[in-house]
Write a structure and sequence with these properties.
By secondary structure, this protein is α+β, with helices and mostly antiparallel strands. The protein has 14 helices and 23 strands. The strands form 6 sheets. An 8-stranded antiparallel beta sheet has the order 19-14-16-15-21-22-20-23. The chain has a 5-stranded antiparallel beta sheet with strand order 7-8-12-10-11, with helices on one face. The chain has a 4-stranded mixed beta sheet with strand order 3-4-6-5, with helices on one face. Helix 10 packs antiparallel against helix 11.
Length: about 475
């Protein structure tokens, strides 16, 4: 990657451009991609960018649905080779890793020793640096907060080239802004994360069918204090008295001494996701089998079938492994290909609890009126966090997957703009890791003005030449 070093501008050999695609496949950039393996290589690229005016987009696992790690006017730093697990203190549960280590690396390193990551996304493929940049949440957000709240310390390379140690007590301002700063202030280098002790390789799962939004909200409010994880699936095609029907999965960790098979069921060979459905069909073929249903009527039938299945297993508890429960998006490899030759976007919104039920009713009704219904809806409960560009609220979120085709793209973006107004009316927020349609006016409407003022001040301080820019940043902040 680096061919020669001089006292002035490092002689960087720029690779040929390659296609860098959003996870949802709805956008991409043609960019030179660097894949550094050491801190020295990352720092040298930052020096070169500052001296040449080159714009850099940081990229981890590439799991953001939209343009959060693409860069049509510069280079991309792919950090997935900067991925070593450096230390794991079994007494404290603190793991130290390079920022390109994936959530997969965390749980695979921890589970046989009785530890699990405190917060995980629906896929195990994000890097920890990317997870902190977006300050990801999980199905336990209402209980333990975001991933940033479990970080003990990190080293951080600012855009202007300084390496700083940050913690809740050291360089505090940068700690609470780099986490949630979507990669616009610098690059996480090493990270110390406090892992969560577990006492079983399985959790108790309670599946519950709900007939509408009233029952959905009622269950969450009654059971969140006794749950470790809660997530709801919603049939977006249902209407009338069935608007908001779906299934909830409540998960509860087993306590010390409750599982006679512990620690045997924490062995990696007993935790990895199964590769076959019903022990017969390779899961890598599943997206091909699902593809014929990838249209409105087909998805309506799939949602209806899932509702019927939910009724049949209602309140029939079972036990499931941590990875199997947590990583639904990895359960069927490449399932997003069902949308080809089109693509998909996810529209995720966070609404305060006092407004959430009405907001989601309006959102689902509006989608049905416009004839663009999302194919997958996921519902979660949240609590606020202390980070600068937080998406969290004391309330609930809904993540909605929409197909993107040549024929519906313009109408879909127009629908999202209409939904934005519903979200703003109900004092809601959006999430950069999932966004593809947000506009600057909307962003400025929901973020507190003091937070934005502070972010711009920190951007000027730590990135005075503005070398860190992604297509998302240009679309939402510079447009």
């Amino acid at each position: 990657m680096v061919t020669k070093k001089t006292k002035s501008i490092p002689n960087i050999k720029v690779p040929m451009k390659e296609k860098v695609e959003a996870w949802g496949m709805s956008s991409f950039s043609m960019s030179p991609v660097f894949r550094p393996e050491t801190e020295e290589e990352i720092k040298e690229l930052f020096v070169w960018a500052n001296q040449t005016g080159t714009k850099i987009a940081l990229r981890g696992g590439g799991c953001s649905y939209g343009d959060a790690s693409t860069n049509n006017e510069g280079i991309v730093l792919d950090l997935t080779r900067f991925n070593k697990v450096l230390d794991f203190n079994l007494k404290s549960g603190v793991m130290t890793v390079q920022s390109g280590a994936r959530i997969k690396d965390l749980w695979e390193t921890g589970i046989e020793n009785g530890f699990w990551p405190p917060v995980v996304s629906g896929t195990m493929m994000p890097t920890l640096g990317g997870a902190l940049s977006m300050n990801i949440h999980g199905k336990n957000n209402f209980k333990v907060g975001t991933i940033g709240e479990h970080i003990k310390e990190f080293t951080f390379l600012t855009a202007k080239g300084d390496i700083l140690e940050c913690s809740p007590k050291k360089n505090t301002d940068l700690f609470y802004s780099a986490i949630s700063g979507f990669g616009m202030l610098g690059c996480f280098l090493t990270v110390q994360i406090k892992m969560k002790p577990i006492y079983s390789g399985k959790m108790k799962i309670d599946p519950v069918y709900v007939r509408n939004f009233d029952e959905l909200f009622e269950y969450f409010e009654e059971h969140y204090k006794s749950a470790d994880y809660l997530v709801g699936w919603i049939d977006a095609f249902a209407s009338g008295k069935s608007l908001g029907r779906g299934q909830i999965h409540k998960a509860t960790n087993l306590k010390a001494g409750e599982d006679p098979d512990f620690p045997g069921n924490c062995l990696l060979e007993r935790q990895h996701l199964p590769t076959r459905l019903f022990y017969l069909i390779p899961k890598k073929w599943m997206w091909i089998l699902m593809r014929p249903f990838s249209f409105n009527f087909g998805m309506r039938m799939i949602n209806l079938a899932k509702c019927i299945a939910s009724i049949l297993v209602n309140n029939k508890a079972y036990y499931q492994g941590h990875a199997e429960y947590a990583f639904l998006l990895d359960y069927v490899p490449n399932w997003k290909y069902v949308y080809k030759p089109g693509a998909m976007i996810q529209y995720q919104v966070f609404i305060p609890k006092e407004n959430a039920k009405q907001a989601f009713r309006e959102i689902f009704t509006k989608c049905q009126e416009r004839g663009i219904v999302n194919y997958l809806s996921v519902f979660k409960k949240h609590k606020p966090d202390p980070f600068l560009l937080t998406h969290a609220v004391d309330g609930f979120s809904m993540a909605m997957d929409f197909p993107v085709t040549k024929g519906n793209r313009e109408k879909l973006w127009s629908l999202c703009y209409e939904l934005d107004e519903i979200v703003l009316k109900h004092k809601g927020r959006f999430y950069f890791a999932k966004d593809s349609t947000l506009r600057k006016r909307v962003m400025e409407s929901y973020f507190p003005k003091d937070n934005l003022k502070r972010f711009y001040s920190l951007k000027k301080k730590y990135d005075p030449k503005g070398i860190l820019q992604t297509d998302l940043y240009k679309r939402v902040f510079l447009s």
